[in-house]
């Protein structure tokens, strides 16, 4: 059996049968780096997002995790089309919105909204709460002038704030309350997809749970799909049934919650998870081995050849510098991009990506899945055989 | 969430620090209201404010008082009891002819009432200064916001325009081009000499004053446009107009107000200086500038006639400056002085 190169189109239903609301394929965002001086030549590109594919099911949520600067916030801003992607497609309800003009995007603004990271800067300090939450209605001319206030008060109640506070200013609220205002603004137009860009990382830990619970209630009540961007793995685990791990502009592992947290296969995911404090282990006095990654994240202007993680990878071999590992499916809802994918401490000695240690193709079984969804068959890493559902 | 919980959650904010002694009430205190509170606590600023308010009220009342005959800045008074023709028209009596009828004395030569002329002069001088300040603020704000928000080529173009304007020898140009431009204005609009002079002065002061404002606003906008609420507004589909005027402009009110209150006194003294150089409104119409210019001729023979306009200019300039400083401190309590 030779390498199966799957090229699914974004309208294809995913393996689970739930139709995706958002289907991102091979998304790229290169920011030009200009030289200084009068004639500003482009001297390079920051490859902030480089070939990312994933999908978000209707009413579901996908978590996007990774360390600072890995491109997860850029991805969020591409989905909301605050940036225009350099390449790739963003399928939203079957339409590719990647190349939409501002005029075409206008109706879309109602469907895709965003919750920002820092509630201190995401609310205009000179506007009252009523003006902030009512702004979407005014901009889209949805209700008359009389219709704004009742809706604003309704939204304040939905997010758990006192509707009488409409005439207050953001600085009069605490961080958690301000984030609720931001959430209310995002909800005003009744969106189908919310991009939550680290919605709780700027909040006090005691408030984080409140806001997360609010988001979950809203998701259930209004059937909103979430792209949940975070670096806190515990919160993502609580919120998202499916999680994608990004490193330096690429997705290195995507899996459902159980697979990712109990059986991570990529050394980067394993390192991330080893950094999460574990209450149960702490209770019995045990300590999990902490994987310490050496060095800094390489520059996205000039990323390493082959596998981007190899410069910090504890199990990297020579072949990792030569061949970039494809994203391949290794479980019913589990994809990983690593030549030596395997459970912690059981990484195979030879690449599982259909090449030998020199980088030459061996013709071994590989189920590549570069598209947004999951394949129906996958490679069972323990047997090396193609398996189906 | 109930009120009691919201009271529990109130925390100091990094963005808009509020005074410690604020009672919690349901009515929100806008950042402006907080600034007014801070301003009222500053005694020096409040004194300056009262002086500025007094000057403004006086300036507004001057034309009305003239009309009903309480003050008279124009009519001559060639009474030999008041001025001494043998001394070239110097006022009789002590300190420039100060009497109950003429509390600040009378003008040498013409015998006009100095108080009336100064009073009306404040009106003209302040009108010109305020109008020029408004021109500078409006032009500077519009160009500053556009440059700061657009960036790139537009920003660079405005930047060069600022450099060009600042490097221009403006005093020289004000003098050299005065007669040509005033004549052109008269021809185009049919205005008489003094209104045309005023238009010229306002235009030139304003058009040389905007670069400072534009630079200030551009800097502010550069930091504001990176804040997430601008992204949030874009995400909602806000038009550039809404972004400029609804999202950004309210956030630059503070520096605008400060530069307005600090530019105006500059223009009051500029008007006086230009009058001395022969630009601007010409006598017999009184402005602080041309009264002072006239007074300089009598600095040795009729000292009070020189002293009073100088005092009035100094009081207006100092109180406006102190007022501006107070406004700045109230709006931005973190700023270093």
From TrEMBL, chain A:
Keyword entries, A-Z: ATP-binding, Nucleotide-binding, Transport
GO process annotations (BP): peptide transport; transmembrane transport
A family per Pfam: oligo_HPY
Keyword field contains ATP-binding: yes
PROSITE patterns associated with the record: ABC_TRANSPORTER_1, ABC_TRANSPORTER_2
Keyword Cytoplasm: no
Name of the protein in its database record: Dipeptide/oligopeptide/nickel ABC transporter ATP-binding protein
Species whose genome carries this gene: Marmoricola endophyticus
Automatic annotation (TrEMBL), chain B:
Compositional bias ranges of the Polar residues kind: 1-10
SUPFAM superfamilies for this protein: MetI-like (SSF161098)
Residues covered by the ABC transmembrane type-1 domain: 122-324
Gene3D superfamilies linked to this entry: MetI-like
Membrane topology: Multi-pass membrane protein
Top-level taxonomic group: Bacteria
One GO CC term on file: plasma membrane
Transmembrane regions listed in the UniProt entry: 47-66, 118-149, 161-186, 198-217, 248-268, 303-324
Record-level GO BP terms: transmembrane transport
InterPro entries named among the record's database cross-references: BP-dependent_transpt_permease, MetI-like, MetI-like_sf, OppC_N
Localization per Swiss-Prot or TrEMBL: Cell membrane
Pfam families, alphabetized: BPD_transp_1 (PF00528), OppC_N (PF12911)
Region (Disordered): 1-27
Keywords annotated in UniProt: Cell membrane, Membrane, Transmembrane, Transmembrane helix, Transport
Keyword Transmembrane helix: yes
Family label: Belongs to the binding-protein-dependent transport system permease family.
Protein name: Peptide ABC transporter permease
């Amino acid at each position: 059996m030779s390498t199966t190169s799957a090229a699914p189109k974004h309208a294809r239903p995913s393996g689970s049968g739930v139709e995706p609301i958002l289907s991102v394929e091979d998304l790229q965002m290169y920011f030009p780096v200009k030289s200084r001086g009068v004639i500003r030549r482009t001297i390079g590109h920051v490859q902030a997002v480089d070939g990312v594919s994933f999908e978000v099911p209707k009413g579901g949520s996908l978590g996007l995790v990774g360390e600072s600067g890995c491109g997860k916030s850029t991805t969020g801003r591409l989905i909301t089309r605050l940036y225009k992607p350099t390449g790739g497609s963003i399928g939203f309800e079957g339409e590719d919105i990647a190349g939409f003009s501002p005029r075409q995007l206008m109706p879309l603004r109602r469907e895709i909204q965003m919750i920002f990271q820092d509630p201190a800067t995401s609310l205009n300090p000179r506007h009252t709460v009523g003006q902030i939450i009512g702004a979407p209605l005014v901009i889209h001319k949805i209700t008359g002038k009389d219709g704004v206030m009742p809706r604003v008060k309704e939204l304040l109640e939905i997010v758990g704030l006192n509707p009488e506070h409409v005439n207050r200013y953001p600085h009069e609220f605490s961080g958690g309350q301000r984030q609720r205002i931001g959430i209310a603004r995002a909800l005003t137009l009744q969106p189908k997809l919310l991009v939550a860009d680290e919605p709780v990382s700027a909040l006090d830990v005691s408030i984080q749970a409140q806001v997360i619970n609010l988001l979950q209630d809203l998701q259930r009540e209004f059937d909103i799909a979430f792209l949940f961007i975070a670096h806190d793995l515990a919160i993502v685990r609580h919120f998202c049934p499916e999680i994608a791990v990004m490193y330096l502009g690429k997705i290195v592992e995507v899996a459902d919650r159980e697979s990712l947290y109990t059986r991570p296969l990529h050394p980067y995911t394993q390192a991330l998870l080893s950094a999460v404090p574990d209450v149960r282990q702490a209770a019995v006095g045990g300590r999990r081995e902490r994987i310490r990654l050496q060095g800094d994240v390489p520059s996205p202007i000039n990323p390493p050849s082959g596998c981007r993680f190899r410069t910090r990878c504890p199990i990297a071999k020579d072949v990792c510098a030569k061949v970039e590992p494809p994203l391949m499916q290794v479980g019913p809802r589990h994809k990983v991009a690593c030549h030596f994918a395997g459970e912690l401490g059981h990484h195979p000695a030879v690449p599982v990506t259909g090449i030998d240690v020199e980088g030459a193709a061996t013709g071994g079984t590989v189920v590549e899945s570069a598209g947004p969804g999951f394949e129906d068959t996958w490679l069972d890493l323990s047997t090396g055989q193609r398996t189906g559902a | 969430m109930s009120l009691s919980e919201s009271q529990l959650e109130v925390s100091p904010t990094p963005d808009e620090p509020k005074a410690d002694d604020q009672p919690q009430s349901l009515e929100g205190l806008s950042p402006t209201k907080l600034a007014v509170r801070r301003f009222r606590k500053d005694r020096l600023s409040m004194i300056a404010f009262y002086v500025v308010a007094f000057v403004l009220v006086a300036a507004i009342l001057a034309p009305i008082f003239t009309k009903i005959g309480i003050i008279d800045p124009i009519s001559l008074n060639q009474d030999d009891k008041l001025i001494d023709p043998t001394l070239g028209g110097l006022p009789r009596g002590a300190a420039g002819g100060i009497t109950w009828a003429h509390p600040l004395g009378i003008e040498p030569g013409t015998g006009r009432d100095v108080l009336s002329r100064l009073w009306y002069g404040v009106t003209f001088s302040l009108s010109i200064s305020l109008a020029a300040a408004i021109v500078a603020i409006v032009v500077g704000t519009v160009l500053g916001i556009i440059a700061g928000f657009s960036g790139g080529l537009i920003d660079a173009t405005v930047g060069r325009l600022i450099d060009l304007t600042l490097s221009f020898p403006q005093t020289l140009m004000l003098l050299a081009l005065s007669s040509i431009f005033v004549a052109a204005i008269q021809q185009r609009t049919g205005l008489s000499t003094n209104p045309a002079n005023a238009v010229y002065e306002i235009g030139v002061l304003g058009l040389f004053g905007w670069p400072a404002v534009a630079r200030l606003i551009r800097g502010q906008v550069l930091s504001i446009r990176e804040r997430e609420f601008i992204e949030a507004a874009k995400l909602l589909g806000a038009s550039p107009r809404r972004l400029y005027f609804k999202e950004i402009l309210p956030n630059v009110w503070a520096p605008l107000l400060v530069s307005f209150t600090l530019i105006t006194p500059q223009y009051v003294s500029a008007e006086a200086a230009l009058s001395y150089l022969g630009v601007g409104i010409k006598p017999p119409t009184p402005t602080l500038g041309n009264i002072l210019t006239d007074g300089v001729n009598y600095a040795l023979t009729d000292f009070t006639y020189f002293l009073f306009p100088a005092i009035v200019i100094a009081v207006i300039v100092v109180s406006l400056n102190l007022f501006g400083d107070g406004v700045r401190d109230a709006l931005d309590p973190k700023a270093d002085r």
